[in-house]
Design a protein that fits this description.
The structure holds two protein chains of two kinds.
Chain A (H helix, E strand, L loop, with lengths): L3 H9 L14 H15 L3 H27 L14 H25 L6 H24 L26 H34 L3 H10 L7 H34 L11 H27 L8 H32 L2 H12 L3 H13 L7 H4 L2 H28 L14 H24 L5 H6 L11
Helix pairs in contact in A: 3-15, 4-5, 4-8, 4-9, 4-14, 5-6, 5-9, 5-15, 6-7, 6-8, 8-9, 9-10, 9-14, 10-11, 11-12, 12-14
Chain B lengths: L1 H8 L8 H11 L16 H8 L13 H17 L26 E9 L2 E10 L2 E7 L12 H10 L9 E2 L2 E2 L2 H17 L5 E5 L5 H13 L4 E4 L6 H11 L4 E4 L6 E5 L10 H10 L12 E6 L11 E4 L2 H14 L13 H13 L4 E5 L5 H13 L7 E4 L9 H13 L5 E5 L3 H4 L6 H7 L2 E6 L4 H4 L3 E4 L8 E4 L5 E4 L12 H8 L6 H13 L4 H11 L30 E6 L13 H5 L7 E2 L4 E3 L1 H7 L5 E7 L2 E9 L7 E5 L29 E13 L3 E2 L6 H7 L2 H7 L2 E3 H6 L28 E6 L8 H9 L7 H5 L8 E7 L6 E7 L18 E3 L5 E3 L9 H4 L7 E2 L28 E2 L5 H13 L12 H5 L5 E5 L6 H7 L3 E2 L11 E4 L1 E3 L3 H5 L1
Parallel strand pairs in B: 6-7, 6-14, 9-10, 9-12, 10-11, 14-15, 15-16, 19-24, 21-23, 27-38, 28-37
Antiparallel strand pairs in B: 1-2, 2-3, 4-5, 4-16, 8-13, 17-18, 19-25, 20-26, 21-24, 22-23, 22-25, 28-35, 29-30, 31-32, 33-34, 36-37
Helix pairs in contact in B: 5-25, 7-17, 8-12, 10-11, 10-12, 13-15
The chains are: A mainly alpha, B alpha/beta.
C-alpha cells in the first residue's frame, strides 16, 4: 500500500551502524504485530489490573476535585506567602513532560531522524495526556474556578477583557494552542493507521468505529501527498511551540520580582528541563510497553540508547542552569539573591535542593556508560529518578522562593495536605489510565511509519 | 399567664381562688409591711411555685379521667387547627413621618459614651449606622482618650454582638424570667433588710462610677451589716497597698508624661495596660519626637521580667527577676536619699547609679513608675523617690481615691471567703465579676461560693460563676446602658446606650437600686442620681451638653499635696529568689479571661511575641538552653503541690531563670470561641504571692503543642536569620538621637536605591489627589490597636487558630516586630505594615483579569468582584500584605454579627484576594462631602481607621500632592524612608526612622 517513492527514500537514510528495526521484519509482520495489540490481544491480565488501579485513582481525583469545589483551595497547604504549591508545581511538571512528544514528532521529523518513528505515536499520545493533566491545575487552582473563563477574551456585557500584561494570560494562550496543535498532529498522524485498523478489524463495530475515524482514507497517492504536506505544516507549527510553551510557562516566574524567580535564564533552562523530563517519561512508559506487548523489535536498544543521550544532553543544560543561578546570585552581589541561594541550599527546604542535584545532575551521569544505556532496568530506574528530580526542581523554584522572600515577618512554611497529594497522584492515575485506554484501542506504534524503514530487501509481499 | 386560667376553665375545672389565698396572706401581715406587688407577697412555698410555674393549675396527666382526657385531646386538636386561621399582622414599610433628630439615611452618627475596663472609663465616640453601633473611635476631648483607643475598646463592639452572651435569666440552671428574678430578689431583700443587712454581701469589680458608689453607700446605710467586697483579677493591689503604706491613706495617682525627661519603669506596662494607658502613650510619644526642636527626647529606662510594649520603647532595659525589682527600687531609693533598707550589692549597681544620676539631673521632670504586679513596697518606694526628685505634682499627680472601695482586692476577697466559711454569708450578689475562674485557687472560692444560700450573679456571660449561681441575670453591655464612671484622672465620663439591650440585660445600678428598695429602669435611676446631684433648674441642658461631650466638664479629681509619711524603713526586704521564678501576668489581649470569647482579641497577635489564640510559658533563650527545652515543648510547671502543663515559648528578652505565664486561658465556660483553649495558669497562683512565686519546678513531658505565632514560626534559629543586620536595614531603620543630629537623613543612606527617575519610561503624573501614608516608627509602640481597628472598620474575618497556623490570618495591617542585639535582652522595634500602594505595584501587571488596578489618585485598588483568585498578586508582593480567602471566612450565617458590619465595606466571599485599601470608603465619603461643597478635601478630613485609633499618632494619611498636608510634611522629613525602595516599587506608605536616646554612660559600659 505505501507508495514506492517513500520506500526508496528510506533505504538511503537507513540507520547507521545499528538498525532501528530488528532484522527479519517485512510490511506484513509489522502491520500484524502492531495491529494485533488492539485487535487480537484482547484483555491481558496486566492490562485489566493496571486499568483498574489507575481508574480507581481517577475516581479519587474526581472526589478530590468535588471537595475542592465545595470547600475552596483552603483544603490545600497553600498560604500567604506560599500562594502556589503543588497546583503550579504539577502544572509545570506535566507541561514539561508533554514536550518530548512534540519534540519527537516535530523537530525530529524535520531533522529526518528515523529512530523517532517507532516512539513518536506513544510520545504524542503522552504529550496530549500530559497537557490534559496539566490543564486541570491552572483552572482549579483559582479561588473561583467557575469564573476562570474571564481569562479568555470573550466579549461579554461586562466589557472587560483579560489583562494582557499578565504571564498567566500568556499561559492560557500558549497552553491551549499547544494542546490543540498536539491533538491535531496526533490525530492526523493516526489516520493512515486507523485505515489499516479498519481493514484489519474483524468485528463490525471495529470496522465502523475505525472506519469513521479514518475519515475515508484509501491510501491513494493524492492522499499521501496531502498527508505529507499536512504533516510538514503541522511539524512546522509545532516546532516553535516546543520552545515557546515552556518559555511562556517560565515567564510566570521570570516576570515576577521574587528572588529565585526573577531571572533571565529561565526560558532556555525551562525548555531544556521540559525535554529532559519528557524523554524520561517516554522511557518510563516505553520500557514496560515494549516488554508487555513484546515490541522489542520496534522499540530497540538503539531507541533507548538515543533517548538516554538526549537526556544526558538536556540534563547538562539543566545543570548549567542550576550552576548559573548560583553563580549569578554571587556575582550580582544582590543581598536578596544571595540570601535566596543560601536559603535554597541550607534553609528549611535545603533537603529538596540537594535531592534535586542528586536526582537531576549526579545520578543521570551514569548514562555516559554505554553499558548503562543498554541496561533496560537501569535506564528505567534512572528515568523515574529524573521524573522525580524534575518535579523537585519545580518544588524548589516555587516553594523555597516564596517561603522566604523579603520581609521575614511574612516568612512561612508550606506543608502539602492530603488533598495536595491526592490531586497529584490523581493526575498521575488519570494520565496512566488514558495511556491504558490508548494502548488498548489504538495502534501504539506508527505502523505505516515503521514500515518505511524496513530495508528494501525484506519488504516481501504485501497484504 | 392569666389567659391560661380562662382556657382551662373550658375543661370544667373550678379554678382555685388564688387571689383569696393572697388576701389571706395579706391579712396575716401587720404593721409597716406594705406590699407593692402580688409577687412580693409570694413569700410562701406555694406562691413561689405559682410564680415559677409557667402554667399554674394545668392538668396533671395523673389527675385526668378518661372523659376529660378525651376532651383535652379534642380541644388540643381543635385549637391547634385554629392557629392556622390567625391573620398575621400586617406590616407596612413607610418612610419616617417624623425623622429622628440628626438622622440622615446612610450617614453614620457618633455618640459620646465610654469604654469600660477595670472600672475606669475611657471616652469613645460610638459610630451608629441606622441605629446600630458599628465602631468605636476615641473621644478627642476626653482626657483618657484624646481621640484614640486601646485594643479592648475596638473589640468591645464584637463583645456586644457576641451570640454567646447570656440571653436569659437562669434560675437553678433553667431558663426563667426577669419578673421571677425581681420577685425573688425582693424577698431576699426584705429578709436582709429586716436583719439590717446581716448575711448580705455584694461582690463587684472595681467601681469608680459616682452613681453606683452613691447607690452602694445608700444600700450600706440601709443595711449597715451588709458588706461590699471587690475583686478584679486585673488590678493593682500593690498600688493600693503601696499608697496606704506611703501616705497612710488611700490615694489615687496619675502621671503627666509630657513633662518627664527621664523615666524609669519598675516592671510596669503603663503604656499598654491600665487606666490612662492610651493617654500615657500619647504623652510619652510626644516627648520622643525630635522635630519638636525645643526639648530633647526623653530617656526611658526599664527594669522588668517579661518584654512588653512599654519596654520595646526603652532606651535601656534590664531583664531582671521580679524579686530583683524590689532590690533595684530599694537601692535606687537609698541612692536618692530615701530612708530604706537595701538588700546589699547587686550586679545592677552601676546601672542603678547611672539611672539615679540621670533622674536627679532632671529633678521635677523625671518619673519612677512601679508596675501593677509589684508589691506594695515598690509602689511606696516609687512614691518616695518621686517625692525626693520633686516630681510629685509635676510628673505624678495625687488625688483622692477614685475607687469606691479602695481596699486591696485580694484582702477583700479573702475576707469574703473566710466569712462564707464561717457561715456569715447568706446571700452573695456577684456583679460582673467571675471569681470562680479568676480568684487564686487556694482561696477555694468555688467551694465557698457553693456554701452560700442565695447566689446571685449578674454578668455578660453565664460564665464559671454564673453557671453555679442560683440566679444568673444577663448584664447589659456598656454600649446598651446609661451610666457613668471616672477616667484615669477622675473626669466623670458618661455612658449612653447606642441600642436597646439586645438580650434584655440588666445593669449593676438596677441591681443595687433594687436592693435599696428602689426599682426602676436603668435610665430613670441614673438620671435621678444626677438630677439630685446637680440640683440645678438647668439640669436637662447641662445633661444634654454632657452627653454630647461624653463627660462632665471640669470633673477631674483635684490634685492633692501628699507627703510621704509612711515608715518604709520598717519594711524588711524580701528574701532574694533562688530558684526558677514564675511570674503571672494578665494576658495582653484577653486579660484575665474576660475577653476569651472575643475572636478579634484572640486572633490579634500578642505584642512582641505575636502569639495568637494561646498562652505560653515564656522562658529566656539561655534558660531554655539550660533546661533543654524549646518552643512548643510541653513542660510541667510545678509550684508547691500544684501543677500545670504549658507549652514553652522561647522569648528573647525574658529575664533568666524566670517563667512568665499569662492568665485568662483554659476557660471552661467562656463561650464557643474561648472555651478550652490555652492552659489555666491561675491554678498555680496563691493569694500570698499572686504575681510572682519562687521555687518553681520544671519538668519535661516529652510532648509537643503547636503554638501559633504570626511571625517567626521557627524559633531562635530563624530569629537570628530573619533579624540579620543587612536584611533589617532594608526594612526598619534605627539610629540614636546623637547620630540623627549629626546626620539627619541617615535613613536614606541605609539602602542603595537607584537614582530618582531611573527609568526609561516617564512616570504617571498624579494631577488631582495623591494619597499617601507615613508611619513614625519612633512613635509606634506595637500595641496592635491599628490591626484591630482595621478589622472592625473593614469587616475583616476571624479565621481561627488552625488557619493562622497555616499562615492565613486576614489582618490588613500587621505589626512586624524586629529584635536587635543580645538574644537574652534584645532591643525590639515595631513596624506597622499596610498595603504600600506602590506606584509601580508589582501585583497589578500579573493579574490576568485586571482585578487589581491603580487609581489616578495613587491607590492600588482591589476589585473583589473581578478577582478569580490566582494569588499571583500576593506571590509577587514583596511586602506580603495581601490576604486571601482560602475558605469562606466571613460568617454569613450568624445573625447577630450582621448589624456589626460596616455597611460601607463589602463582606468578602471565598476565593478572592483582599488587602488594605487606605480606608477607601472614608476617602470617598470625604470626597463626596467636598464635592458637594465644591472644594478640595481638606487635610485631616480623611482619617484612616488605623490612624484614628493610634494612641501615639504614629500614622499620618493625606494628599501628598498638597505639600502643606501633614502626610506630605512627614514624607519630607529627613527621617523618611521607604521599605524595600531598591526594588523600585515607589511605595506610598513610608516610614520615619526610629530613634533611640541611650545614655552615653551606659553605652560605654
Amino acid at each position: 500500500m505505501p507508495p514506492e517513492k517513500l520506500g526508496s527514500e528510506t533505504t538511503t537514510v537507513a540507520a547507521g551502524p545499528e538498525p532501528v528495526l530488528a532484522p527479519g521484519h517485512n510490511y506484513a509482520t509489522i502491520s500484524d504485530k502492531i495491529a494485533a495489540v488492539p485487535l487480537e490481544v484482547g484483555w491481558p491480565r496486566f492490562w485489566i489490573v493496571g486499568f483498574t488501579i489507575t481508574f480507581s485513582i481517577v475516581m479519587m481525583l474526581l472526589a478530590t476535585i468535588t471537595w475542592l469545589l465545595a470547600r475552596g483551595v483552603g483544603i490545600w497547604g497553600i498560604n500567604i506567602p506560599v500562594g502556589w504549591g503543588f497546583d503550579i508545581i504539577n502544572f509545570v511538571w506535566w507541561i514539561g513532560i508533554g514536550h518530548a512528544g512534540t519534540l519527537i514528532s516535530a523537530i525530529l521529523l524535520l531533522l529526518k531522524q528515523q529512530w523517532r518513528m517507532s516512539i513518536s505515536r506513544s510520545a504524542e499520545a503522552m504529550t496530549l495526556f500530559a497537557v490534559a493533566c496539566a490543564g486541570i491545575f491552572p483552572l482549579l487552582h483559582t479561588g473561583r474556578p467557575w469564573l476562570a473563563y474571564w481569562m479568555l477574551p470573550i466579549p461579554t456585557v461586562m466589557s472587560m477583557w483579560p489583562q494582557p500584561r499578565s504571564p498567566l494570560l500568556w499561559d492560557v494562550f500558549a497552553v491551549s494552542t499547544y494542546g490543540i496543535i498536539s491533538l491535531v498532529f496526533w490525530y492526523v498522524g493516526l489516520i493512515p493507521d486507523l485505515a489499516t485498523m479498519r481493514d484489519k478489524a474483524r468485528s463490525r463495530f471495529g470496522q465502523v468505529a475505525y472506519g469513521a475515524l479514518a475519515l475515508g482514507w484509501r491510501g491513494s497517492a493524492r492522499h499521501w501527498n496531502h498527508y505529507e504536506m499536512a504533516t510538514l505544516i503541522l511539524a512546522g507549527m509545532s516546532t516553535p511551540l516546543v520552545l515557546s510553551v515552556h518559555t511562556v510557562v517560565s515567564f510566570d516566574f521570570a516576570i515576577s520580582l521574587i528572588p529565585g524567580w526573577h531571572t533571565t535564564i529561565f526560558p532556555p533552562y525551562f525548555v531544556a528541563g521540559a525535554i529532559y523530563s519528557g524523554f524520561a517519561m517516554v522511557l518510563t512508559l516505553a520500557i514496560p510497553l515494549r516488554a508487555w506487548y513484546k515490541m522489542q523489535d520496534f522499540i530497540t536498544m538503539k531507541h533507548i540508547d538515543n533517548m538516554c543521550k538526549v537526556m544526558l544532553a538536556t540534563g547538562w543544560i539543566v545543570a548549567y542552569g542550576y550552576l548559573m543561578e548560583a553563580f549569578m546570585s554571587w556575582y550580582s552581589g544582590n543581598f536578596w539573591e544571595l540570601f535566596m541561594m543560601k536559603n535554597r541550599a541550607t534553609g528549611p527546604y535545603g533537603w529538596s535542593y540537594w535531592m534535586l542535584i542528586l536526582f537531576n545532575v549526579l545520578i543521570p551521569q551514569v548514562l555516559w556508560l554505554k553499558k548503562a544505556r543498554r541496561n533496560v532496568a537501569l535506564v528505567f530506574i534512572t528515568a523515574i529518578i529524573i521524573n522525580i528530580g524534575m518535579w523537585l526542581e519545580r518544588f524548589v523554584i516555587i516553594v523555597t522562593s516564596l517561603a522566604r522572600d523579603f520581609v521575614p515577618s511574612s516568612w512561612g512554611m508550606y506543608y502539602p495536605t492530603k488533598y495536595d497529594w491526592s490531586m497529584f497522584i490523581g493526575t498521575i492515575g488519570f494520565f496512566l489510565c488514558l495511556m491504558y485506554v490508548f494502548v488498548r484501542l489504538l495502534p501504539a506504534l506508527s505502523i505505516f511509519e515503521i514500515r518505511t524503514i524496513v530495508p528494501r530487501a525484506e519488504k516481501g509481499g504485501s497484504h | 399567664m392569666r389567659g391560661n386560667q380562662a382556657k382551662f376553665n373550658i375543661l370544667g375545672q373550678a379554678p382555685r381562688l388564688d387571689l383569696a389565698l393572697i388576701r389571706g396572706r395579706l391579712e396575716g401581715k401587720s404593721g409597716q409591711q406594705y406590699w407593692r406587688s402580688l409577687e412580693e407577697l409570694a413569700d410562701t412555698v406555694e406562691f413561689q411555685a405559682y410564680i415559677e410555674d409557667e402554667f399554674p393549675h394545668r392538668e396533671g396527666l395523673d389527675r385526668l379521667d378518661r372523659r376529660n382526657w378525651l376532651k383535652f385531646l379534642g380541644a388540643s386538636l381543635g385549637l391547634a387547627g385554629l392557629t392556622a386561621c390567625t391573620r398575621q399582622p400586617l406590616e407596612k414599610i413607610v418612610p419616617y413621618v417624623k425623622i429622628p433628630e440628626e438622622f440622615s439615611g446612610n450617614r453614620p452618627l457618633f455618640y459620646a459614651t465610654a469604654h469600660m475596663l477595670g472600672g475606669y472609663a475611657s471616652g469613645i465616640l460610638a459610630e451608629s449606622h441606622y441605629g446600630r453601633p458599628t465602631k468605636a473611635e476615641g473621644n478627642p476631648e476626653h482626657p483618657s482618650s484624646l481621640g484614640s483607643t486601646d485594643i479592648f475598646a475596638q473589640a468591645s463592639l464584637l463583645a456586644m454582638y457576641d451570640p454567646d452572651r447570656s440571653q436569659a435569666v437562669f434560675h437553678e440552671g433553667r431558663i426563667s424570667n426577669t419578673a421571677s428574678f425581681w420577685a425573688a430578689l425582693t424577698v431576699i431583700r426584705e429578709k436582709h433588710a429586716a436583719a439590717k443587712g446581716a448575711g448580705l454581701r455584694m461582690l463587684t469589680e472595681t467601681i469608680t462610677s459616682p452613681s453606683l458608689i452613691d447607690t452602694m453607700k445608700l444600700l450600706l446605710e440601709q443595711m449597715p451589716q451588709a458588706r461590699w467586697h471587690v475583686w478584679d483579677a486585673v488590678t493593682s493591689d500593690g498600688a493600693r497597698a503601696g499608697a496606704k503604706l506611703a501616705f497612710g491613706e488611700p490615694v489615687s495617682h496619675h502621671y503627666r508624661l509630657e513633662s518627664a525627661n527621664a523615666i524609669l519603669s519598675l516592671d510596669s506596662d503603663f503604656l499598654y495596660l491600665g487606666p490612662g494607658a492610651v493617654r500615657y502613650a500619647r504623652d510619652f510619644a510626644g516627648r520622643r519626637k525630635p522635630e519638636t526642636g525645643k526639648a530633647r527626647m526623653s530617656r526611658f529606662y526599664v527594669a522588668e521580667v517579661h518584654p512588653t510594649v512599654t519596654s520595646s520603647l526603652a532606651d535601656h532595659r534590664l531583664a531582671v527577676r521580679s524579686s530583683e525589682v524590689e532590690a533595684i527600687a530599694r537601692s535606687l531609693a537609698a541612692k536618692l536619699g530615701v530612708a530604706v533598707e537595701t538588700s546589699g550589692t547587686s550586679p545592677y549597681d552601676a546601672w542603678i547609679a547611672t539611672v539615679a544620676k540621670d533622674l536627679e539631673a532632671h529633678k521635677g521632670a523625671s518619673l519612677v513608675v512601679a508596675g501593677d504586679q509589684q508589691p506594695a513596697i515598690v509602689h511606696a518606694l516609687a512614691h518616695a523617690i518621686n517625692e525626693k526628685l520633686g516630681n510629685a505634682g509635676k510628673t505624678v499627680v495625687y488625688t483622692e481615691p477614685l475607687e469606691g472601695n479602695p481596699t486591696p482586692h485580694l484582702d477583700s476577697l479573702r475576707e469574703l471567703a473566710e466569712d462564707i466559711n464561717a457561715g456569715k454569708v447568706e446571700t452573695l450578689i456577684v456583679l460582673s465579676a467571675n471569681p470562680v475562674f479568676t480568684a487564686p485557687p487556694d482561696l477555694k472560692i468555688q467551694d465557698a461560693y457553693m456554701k452560700v444560700k442565695n447566689r446571685i450573679h449578674l454578668g455578660l456571660y453565664r460564665d464559671e460563676t454564673g453557671n453555679i449561681s442560683h440566679w444568673h441575670v444577663p448584664q447589659a453591655h456598656p454600649l446598651e446602658t446609661w451610666g457613668d464612671a471616672r477616667a484615669h484622672d477622675g473626669t466623670i465620663t458618661t455612658i449612653q446606650p447606642l441600642i436597646e439591650p439586645l438580650y434584655g440585660g440588666k445593669t449593676e445600678l438596677e441591681m443595687l437600686a433594687a436592693l435599696t428598695g428602689k426599682q426602676g429602669t436603668n435610665q430613670a435611676l441614673w438620671k435621678r442620681y444626677w438630677r439630685n446631684r446637680i440640683k440645678s433648674p438647668d439640669f436637662e441642658n447641662q445633661l444634654q451638653k454632657t452627653l454630647h461631650d461624653g463627660f462632665w466638664a471640669n470633673s477631674a479629681a483635684a490634685a492633692r499635696q501628699m507627703p510621704v509619711k509612711g515608715d518604709l524603713k520598717s519594711v524588711a526586704p524580701a528574701p532574694p529568689a533562688s530558684g526558677i521564678e514564675i511570674t503571672f501576668r494578665p494576658d495582653p489581649t484577653v486579660l484575665d479571661g474576660r475577653f476569651a470569647n472575643n475572636g478579634w482579641l484572640q486572633e490579634l497577635p500578642k505584642p512582641i511575641t505575636k502569639i495568637t489564640w494561646d498562652n505560653a510559658a515564656h522562658i529566656a533563650p539561655s534558660t531554655a538552653e539550660k533546661l533543654g527545652v524549646t518552643t512548643d515543648d510541653v513542660i510541667r510547671l510545678k509550684l508547691g503541690d500544684r501543677t500545670v502543663k504549658a507549652p514553652v515559648w522561647v522569648t528573647p528578652g525574658q529575664a533568666r531563670d524566670t517563667v512568665t505565664v499569662h492568665l485568662g486561658y483554659g476557660r471552661k465556660r467562656a463561650g464557643n470561641v474561648g472555651d478550652e483553649i490555652g492552659f489555666d495558669a491561675n491554678i498555680l497562683r496563691s493569694w500570698r504571692n499572686p504575681w510572682a512565686a519562687d521555687g518553681a519546678d520544671i519538668g519535661k513531658t516529652g510532648n509537643n503543642y503547636k503554638l501559633v505565632s504570626t511571625q517567626t514560626h521557627n524559633g531562635i534559629q530563624q530569629i537570628r536569620e530573619a533579624d540579620a543586620g543587612a536584611r533589617q536595614r532594608h526594612l526598619v531603620r534605627v539610629a540614636t538621637e546623637e547620630e540623627f543630629l549629626k546626620e539627619p537623613d541617615f535613613a536614606r543612606h541605609m539602602s542603595e536605591d537607584p537614582p530618582a527617575g531611573f527609568s526609561m519610561y516617564p512616570g504617571f503624573e498624579y494631577k488631582g489627589y495623591s494619597w499617601g501614608m507615613a508611619i513614625d516608627l519612633n512613635a509606634c509602640t506595637g500595641c496592635g490597636a491599628c490591626t484591630i481597628a482595621c478589622q472592625a472598620e473593614n469587616n475583616i474575618s476571624v479565621v481561627g487558630k488552625d488557619q493562622v497556623l497555616r499562615g492565613r490570618e486576614m489582618h490588613w495591617i500587621r505589626v512586624d516586630r524586629y529584635h536587635q542585639g543580645d538574644l537574652d535582652n534584645p532591643a525590639a522595634y515595631s513596624q506597622p505594615v499596610t498595603c504600600m500602594h506602590c506606584e509601580n505595584a508589582s501585583c497589578e501587571p500579573v493579574c490576568p483579569v485586571a482585578a487589581t488596578t491603580h487609581s489616578e489618585e495613587g491607590l492600588n485598588q482591589m476589585v473583589y468582584n473581578r478577582c478569580i483568585g490566582t494569588r499571583y498578586c500576593s506571590n509577587n508582593c514583596p511586602y506580603k500584605v495581601r490576604r486571601f480567602n482560602f475558605y469562606l471566612y466571613a460568617d454569613w450565617d450568624t445573625q447577630s454579627y450582621h448589624p456589626l458590619r460596616n455597611p460601607d465595606v463589602t463582606v468578602r466571599s471565598r476565593g478572592v484576594m483582599e488587602k488594605c485599601t487606605y480606608c477607601i470608603q472614608r476617602i470617598n465619603y470625604a470626597k463626596i462631602e467636598a464635592e458637594k461643597e465644591d472644594r478640595r478635601v481638606r487635610d485631616g478630613e480623611i482619617v484612616t481607621a488605623c490612624q484614628q485609633v493610634c494612641p501615639t499618632e504614629a500614622i499620618q494619611f493625606g494628599d501628598i500632592n498638597d505639600k502643606s498636608s501633614k502626610a506630605a510634611r512627614w514624607k519630607a522629613d529627613s527621617r523618611n524612608y521607604g521599605m524595600l525602595t531598591d526594588l523600585q516599587m515607589r511605595p506610598r506608605t513610608t516610614y520615619l526612622a526610629r530613634l533611640q536616646n541611650p545614655n552615653p554612660e551606659l553605652e560605654k559600659g
